[in-house]
Amino acid sequence: SKGVDAMIKDCLSMYNSFLTNK
Questions:
Q1: Which CA distances in Å does 20 have to 4, 12, 14, 15?
Q2: What gap in Å lies between CA 12 and CA 3, rounded to an integer?
Q3: d(CA 19, CA 13)
Q4: Is the pLDDT assigned to residue 20 strictly greater than 90?
Q5: Cα separation of 20 and 4, whole Å?
Q6: pLDDT over 90 (residue 9)
Q7: Dist CA 21 CA 14 (whole Å)
């Protein structure tokens, strides 16, 4: 559970930085 949560958080932060860099 914690592993999946961390993975989702990681993906969200990467997606956020991708949107900010655009």
A1: 24, 12, 10, 9
A2: 14
A3: 10
A4: yes
A5: 24
A6: yes
A7: 10
**Which pair of tokens denotes residue 12?**
């969200």
Q: What DSSP assignment string belongs to 1-22?
A: -HHHHHHHHHHHHHHHHHHHH-
Count CA atoms closer than 13 A to 9's CA, side-chain side: 6
Dig out the tokens for 7 from the structure: 């993975």
pTM for the complete prediction? 0.50
Reported confidence tier of residue 16, pLDDT bands at 50, 70, 90:
very high
